[in-house]
Specification:
The complex is a heterodimer of chains A (about 100) and B (about 525). Chain A has about 100 residues and is mainly α. In chain A, about 75% of the residues lie in helices and about 0% in strands. Chain A has helices spanning about 10-15, 20-40, 45-90. The radius of gyration of chain A is 21 Å and the shape is elongated. Chain B contains 25 helices and no strands. Classes of the chains: A mainly alpha (about 100), B mainly alpha (about 525).
Chain lengths: ~100, ~525
């Protein structure tokens, strides 16, 4: 499965895949690099600029990997949202919960 | 606080003019959404779940830049140098959460974390958890309101020599006007402006501070002369700042993003997540808001290095934690003081408005609507939301007048929230077998044990006062000793309930039996 997959079916987008894991890792890496990079760059340190540039690359990669999947997932879920909200209204009323005092 | 820095600034007419203009704009901006806010409970507390990502993102940033934030982050940066940026790095949980727990929570459609408990769990345990979390969060938001208002009282005393209560009461009361009028619509629209103002002014003040210290090269040179060059190294580990602490922080913040409720901030973000118009918007709002905070902290880090080389011998934490405020009010050019104070107000109002509305959400949706009056009309719920906002405001004034030491209260709250329930908050997301009784027992055990480990036992000499990262792991183990047996001694949650939750939220992790049951019932497609 390509990391830079652009087309997602609704069923595929609903599953957890390597794309979610890689996006999460890149996301943490980008936070880390931005934290160090911005401080270093303000002190005019070379390592600061390098870290900041690496952080930006990490952000771009993360976006390219996860955005098509997020778009597909959002479209599918938006169609189901109304039905789900009705379900919640029914099932979370405490006096109607099934087996509440078993 | 030292006598010599009380009543630091004198405002001119122009300064007050800018402050008044800002306050009026904030109030008008909030009140203008009065009609939207009163339409329904969902509008009053979630802006109708229709916001594009950049609105909740600025709100995430704004509400997490509170009046006390420059104090405690500035304090650790002054004390620890550049490596102090890792103290607030726990907000990196947003980086992971954006693509894991945010997605799961948004799909659950729960209006609050307390409601999520009754979607995830079933039976009496779920109800007890929901009631507990609703009560806890109502109190916790009052507590946050109190400590942030107390910080504003401190700023008022520091800047103008006002009695503590003036800063505490006046600005928080002003904020209540637009929260009462428009609910979350008022919060989010004001946060958008406040977030931009706060971000811009913090950045400008930090750059100005660096300039006043002579620029980057001069800061580095002065630190060398002072024999303090280690302050430039974000990875300088020693006994005071051990590598084990750093690793603990990285694990805590990153893996914590998988869970729900690990951090005190989660409950605020949960409201932003549900107010976003789609899963994608929810993910990006949390991710971008968190990143903006990281960006801000790095600016503060260098500004506090600048403050350090200008004032290297401050030993009283109550003085050096005001470092950023001193850069702002003592060094910014004439004509900017009123603008800077407006930014301080923006920082203050955004946190206050968030906690007022969020506390009212738990009190209204999870206590009143759920337990007291399930048949309440939308109009009645909005009315109760407003009454609860006023009650929170009054409670915050009483509580705020009793607390002075900001950092101690902050650490108390964070530990009480974070340590023992860190792992259970992850388990409840990723493991179907983790049940309501296990989570409830983890909460109770954490409340008891955090008091014992952090204060009581060291005070009576039973155990030494441990470094905070050791307290964290000790509490994680001690609380596990309670909830793991309870989980295996009690039944799993009802399978019908779990299947409904799974189909809707699609959690990650160890949900095999529930997934197979959902496939068997034809509720989801079988994996190819």
């Amino acid at each position: 499965m390509s990391l830079f997959r652009k087309e997602w079916t609704p069923a595929d987008a609903d599953e957890w895949t390597i794309h979610d894991l890689v996006a999460s890792v890149l996301s943490v890496v980008s936070y880390f690099l931005v934290a160090v990079g911005v401080a270093g760059a303000l002190l005019l340190k070379v390592w600061g600029f390098v870290a900041l540039a690496a952080g930006l690359v990490s952000i771009v990669l993360m976006f390219l990997i996860i955005d098509p999947k997020l778009k597909a997932m959002s479209r599918t879920f938006a169609e189901k949202q109304h039905e789900f909200l009705e379900h919640i209204d029914k099932t979370t009323r405490w006096e109607q919960s099934e087996g509440l005092y078993e | 606080m030292s006598e010599q820095i009380l009543g630091l600034v004198e405002f001119t007419f122009l300064d007050w003019f800018w402050v008044v203009v800002f306050v009026v704009v904030m109030i008008v901006c909030g009140v203008i959404f009065y009609r939207l806010g009163k339409r329904s409970e969902s509008e009053f507390f979630l802006a109708g779940r229709g916001l594009p990502w950049w609105l909740p993102a600025t709100s995430v940033y704004a509400s997490h830049t509170a009046t006390d934030t420059p104090m405690w982050i500035g304090g650790v940066l002054y004390k620890f140098g550049m490596r102090g940026i890792w103290f607030p790095f726990f907000s990196a949980w947003c980086a992971v959460s954006a693509f894991i727990s945010t997605r799961i929570f948004r799909r659950s459609l729960a209006m609050s974390q307390a409601e999520w408990q009754s979607l995830r769990y079933s039976g009496l345990g779920a109800e007890l958890l929901r009631g507990w979390l609703a009560g806890w969060q109502t109190f916790m938001n009052m507590f946050i309101l109190a400590w942030v208002s107390a910080a504003m009282g401190k700023v008022g005393t520091y800047l103008f020599g006002w009695p503590h209560w003036i800063g505490l009461v006046v600005f928080t009361a002003i904020c209540a006007i637009y929260v009462l009028s428009a609910g979350y619509w008022g919060v989010i629209m004001a946060d958008f402006q406040q977030g931009i103002i706060a971000f811009t002014i913090i950045t400008i003040v930090c750059c100005w501070g660096i300039y006043e210290a002579g620029g980057a090269k001069a800061i580095i040179d002065k630190l060398e002369v002072l024999g303090e060059s280690w302050r430039l190294n974000p990875f300088h580990f020693d006994e005071e700042f051990p590598l084990a602490w750093f690793i603990t922080l990285l694990i805590m913040s990153t893996f914590g993003g998988i869970g729900m409720g690990n951090f005190i901030d989660w409950y605020t973000e949960a409201q932003r997540i549900q107010s976003a118009r789609s899963l994608r918007d929810a993910s990006y709002s949390i991710w971008a808001g968190g990143l903006a905070g990281i960006f801000r902290n790095s600016f503060w880090a260098v500004a506090m290095l600048a403050f350090y080389v200008m004032f290297p011998n401050i030993t009283d934490s109550r003085d050096y934690e005001m470092g950023w405020f001193r850069l702002a009010f003592e060094y910014m050019p004439i004509g900017m003081i009123g603008v800077v104070f407006a930014a301080v107000l923006a920082i203050h109002l955004s946190t206050i408005s968030t906690s007022l509305n969020l506390g009212a959400l738990y009190a209204t949706h999870d206590l009143y609507h759920h337990y007291i009056n399930p048949e309440a009309s939308e109009k009645r719920l909005v009315q109760v939301g407003r009454i609860n906002t006023v009650l929170l405001l009054l409670g915050c004034f009483i509580l705020g007048l009793t607390m002075r030491k900001i950092t101690e209260w902050l650490i108390f709250a964070l530990w009480l929230q974070a340590a023992g329930i860190w792992i259970p908050s992850i388990l409840q997301v990723i493991w179907w077998r983790f049940n309501s009784w296990a989570y409830l027992s983890a909460w109770v055990a954490n409340l008891v044990m955090s008091w014992l480990v952090v204060w009581v036992l060291p005070a009576v000499g039973v155990m030494p006062e441990l470094p905070d990262y050791q307290q964290f792991w000790l509490l994680a183990v001690l609380v596990a000793v309670v909830y793991v047996p309870i989980m295996f001694l009690t039944r799993p949650d009802d399978m019908d309930h779990l299947v409904k939750y799974y189909v809707m939220a699609r959690p990650c992790g160890f949900w095999g039996p529930v997934r197979r049951e959902a496939v068997k019932r034809g509720l989801i497609e079988m994996e190819m």
